[in-house]
Amino acid sequence: MIWPFSQPKEPTVAAYLASKPSQRREAKEIRELPIVLLDAETTGFKIGVDRLLTLGIIRVQAQQILVESARSWTVYQEKPILNEAVKVHGILPSDTNNGRPEKEVMLEFLSELQDAIIVGHHIGFDTAVLNEASKRHFRISIKNRVVDTAHLAMQELTAFKRTGYVNQRPPTLEELCTHLKMPILERHTALGDAYTTGLLFLNLCARISRRLGRPVQLRDLPR
Question: Which of 115, 117, 111 is closest to 138 using CA atoms?
Answer without folding.
Answer: 111
